[in-house]
Amino acid sequence: MATSIASVHLLFLVIMTSGFPFHKAACIETEKEALLKLKQGLLDPSHRLSSWDGDDCCKWRGVVCSNRTGHVIRLNLRSLEDDGIYGKFGGEISHSLLDLKYLNYLDLSMNNFEGTKIPKFIGSLERLRYLNLSAANFSGRIPPQLGNLSRLIYLDLKEYFDLNAYSDESRQNDLQWISGLYSLRHLNLEGANLSIASAYWLQAVSMLPSLSELHLSSCGLSLLPPSLPSSNLTSLSVLVLSNNGFNSTIPQWLFQLRNLVHLDLSFDQLGGSILNAFPSRTSLEKLKKMGSLCKLKTVILSENDLNGEITELIDVLSGCNYSSLEHLNLGFNKLGGVLPNSIGNLYKLQSLLLWENSFVGSIPNSIGNLSNLKELYLSNNKMSGTIPETLGQLNELVAVDVSENSWEGVLTESHLSNLKNLKELAISNNPLQPNQTLIINIGSEGIPPFKLKYIELGSCQVGPEFPVWLRNQNELNTLILRDGRISGTIPDWFWKLDLELDQLDLRYNQLSGRVPNSLRFTSQSSVYLKTNHFSGSLPLWSSNVSRLNLRNNLFSGPIPSDIGERMPMLMELDLSYNSLTGTLPLSIGTLYGLETLYISNNYLSGEIPELWDGIPSLLVHVDLSNNNLSGELPYSVGSLMFIVFLTLSNNHLSGELPSTLQNCTILSNLDLGGNRFSGNIPAWIGQTMPNLWILRLRSNLFNGSIPSQLCSLSSLHILDLAQNNLSGSIPSCLGNLSAMASEIELYRYEGDSTVLTKGREDSYRSILYLVNSIDLSNNALSGDVPGGLTNLSTLGTLNLSINHLTGKIPKNIGQLQRLETLDLSRNQLSGPIPEGMASLTFLNHLNLSYNNLSGRIPTGNQLQALDDPSIYRDNPALCGRPITAKCPGDDEALNPPGGDDEDEDEDGAEFEMKWFYLSMGIGFVVGIWGVCGTLVVMESWRQAYFRGVYKMKEWIMLVIQLNVARLLQWKLNLGRSQSRN
Known about the structure:
By secondary structure, this protein is an alpha/beta fold. It is 16% helix and 22% strand. The protein has a 31-stranded mixed sheet, with helices on one face. Strands 38-40-42-44-46-48-52-54 form an eight-stranded parallel sheet, with no helix packed on it. The chain has a five-stranded parallel sheet with strand order 28-30-32-34-36, with no helix packed on it. A hairpin with a 2-residue loop joins strand 49 (753-757) and strand 50 (760-764).
């Protein structure tokens, strides 16, 4: 829209300023000299001004003269994309430009003036009507002298500045100077910092009565005024205020601009309902009658915090006699409700973008009325139901994305039969709602009328066979058939389509067979075949593949030794959970762009070669766990300067940790468990790895003491040193591990790790960051349990079992309010169990067995649920429930001399029960004889009683006889009526 209006302006300027072609005047000599001086000051690496030679400057490139007077009136030095980065003009702009006194058009945009300031003298070119300095890499503030250009119609300073020279001075732009531009129709200051003008920017632009286009996106404006200061903006047709962070509601004046055609308020942190812009439904109808809403062609309110429903707004927009709306973008908000049927009345609509909201219900059938619709994006909502067949009527549709919803029913060829222009198709269900089943049933006989470039069918039933209707889709760039319940082999015709893909995603199916190497891929492409049943040797495709994920398949054999040469662009390589054998190829070390390397859970053997050989690597994640790797950790591991996750657990690695490992200063997860590493645990781990979250060295041969330097790891939330040969005391400073003493403030990362908790090993991934654990079990540690450990208020697991610890259990153990697992078994602890242990309300696994604890076992709260006697086994001096040993004094309490209160209560209860049964028997006898005895003694009562019984019997017999007679009569009448019929 903005481009078309600008073109009209330019045509107007050409007509008005070029003059009529009565004759062609020659170039003015003084202006020719001015242009040559301008050329001398400019840097022209691509020699674009080589034509600036000869007598007639009107023939020079970028120069336009008046046919009538010969004066230079237009100077276009805009760089083109073909000129490249190093072909742009630079240098200085000469003052000789002022000698072009009739210049009305100046374009210096898209150049590189390397941070020089915008010349102030441009404000003296009083005849200028068009000025474009956008993206020219100037610096400094916008010179207020530009406000002298009273004839200026078009001003474009979009991103005029050099980012490398964006000084504080560039932040001092105000808008006071624009008040003199009273002829201005087009103003673009996108990217200019106008933060100091936030309070008055609207008032400033309202002083421009002819303004029709205003572009102020990314200007640092923080205030969106609730009302207009004046009514001068009646000519405004294009308003772009995106990416300013207004953090307000939509003001009412926006939709009262009668000539508004294009509105963009995206990325502005707008909240509340869209209907807040309209005081009432009456005002909506009034604006419709005024034509304010009906002229709108483009409405962009995406990337905000808008909520509520849009039904009423759509109803009004669709009610316009001549609705002009072509583009509606409300994506990435919090809008909800159903899509109204009236949306089908927006007949001119070309793009409808409602993705990333909370819309519910199904797509209305009226969608089929939008015959001009080209883009339909409804992904990532909460929509459900069936996809209407009327979608197939949209023969102009180019892209449709309804993924990440909860569709059901069957999608057939009738949904797609007329979509001859379709290029992008994305239909998928939310994998978190597996109960909704959408079946893609496009017959094998039919040939779709379209040629797709992008197809995504995810978490819906595409199978059981590979879809045959894809066999004519030979223009595909992206193919995603994720979690489609497809089984069997991929047919040969697919491999012969000669596709050049940028993404192939077939993960989470049951596909089998071998994968050929014949596929071609574009630069930076991705291949995801994880969680299938593919077998055979590893496929190696084109050198353009950057992400290769073959995890959880049946691939076997060695990793090709030349993988680094054949796929040099790899950034992600995941070969985990296969049956790969052999050794790690040395060529992996040549993958200098590799960021993630996962080859865990295979059968690799041999040593880890010097893969990185001192060359800095971009690797962030390395997981070689659960293999048969042996030997020492190579010294080249110190070249992994950016490594965050290093997991080498459950191999046969040995030797001491190389000192070069301390170069990995941003390491967050160090998991070397289940190996044969030996020597002391290096103290430099606590000194050079301050960001460590997880330190897992369990099941190795480490000896010596636990270095106190580990206490400085303030982010550590999993410390596992179990099953080593560690000795000495537990450092008391472990109570300073602050990540286990505060609420979670860690980055919510995902990573695989195994943690011994609740007496069993559990694997964690998505919630690993929530696990807080200390496991020092099965060592030779001695001394007391440090009381400082009770400061770790969010600790979930504490396992100090199978050591030589002595002393008492810390009396403040009850402060560990989040503790779920406590294992102090098989030590030499003594003294009583602290009463505070009963207050550990989260505790569900406790083991204090095989110690020398004494005294009564505390009762109450959580300990009442932990009633397994084995918890306290082999603590001879413990007594009380749940074990059988009684505490001193318990026997006397049961049998006190002369009887105690309990015996008295039992005897009293037994005496009361005897009297209860005796009184009940007497009552029964008295009740029976109170009635029967009276009838025996009193003859008159006896006669009256039997007379009443007789009358009752006669009445019951009469009622029965009458009902029987009625039933017989009814049957007789029924038989007669049937015989007549």
